[in-house]
Design goal:
One of its GO terms (biological process) is aerobic respiration. It is a multi-pass membrane protein. The chain has 157 residues and is mostly helical. The chain is built from 7 helices and no strands.
Length: 157
């Protein structure tokens, strides 16, 4: 609910800065505009490539999103508020986050379009390029502390 209010405020403030009216079509003062936009997004038609591999085109983004959501299983949100408290939490987090470029490559390759493929390749290269320093930093910290459990770091604070 808070996100809807923030989106509504952002739209209203942007409209005031740009000297335009802003969203006021759905509900009083446009309060339900974000809900209408979300409904419109969910009901849109799926565009599938005519010459591409439809299976790769559909599975690629799913793999990327699922791997990002799975990484939240390992992150502790409180001292005992973690969904999967593992002794190798850091390594599992790095492994799960490294699956994202595979999904990006699959979706780019599945479209059978050179521009989509180069975009997927670029996104995968960017993901890999920031994962290597991130992995080295996380490993350096975890080797210094000599513990790979993510809940252990919360006990230090």
């Amino acid at each position: 609910m808070g996100v809807l209010v923030i989106v509504w405020l952002e739209r209203k403030i942007s409209a005031a800065i740009q000297q335009r009216i802003g969203p006021e079509y759905s509900g009083p003062l446009g309060i339900l505009q974000a809900l209408a936009d979300g409904t419109k997004l969910l009901l849109k038609e799926d565009l599938l490539p005519s010459r591409g591999n439809i299976r790769l085109f559909r599975v690629g983004p799913s793999i990327a999103v699922i791997s990002i959501l799975l990484s939240y299983l390992i992150i502790p949100f409180g001292y005992h508020l973690v969904l999967a408290d593992l002794s190798i939490g850091f390594f599992l987090w790095i492994d799960i986050s490294s699956i994202v470029p595979i999904g990006l490559l699959m979706s780019g390759y599945g479209s059978n379009n050179k521009y989509s493929f180069s975009g997927g390749l670029r996104a995968a290269a960017q993901s890999i390029s920031y994962e290597i320093p991130l992995t080295l930093c996380v490993l350096a910290i975890s080797l210094r502390v000599i513990c790979w459990n993510m809940n252990f770091f919360l006990s230090l604070f």
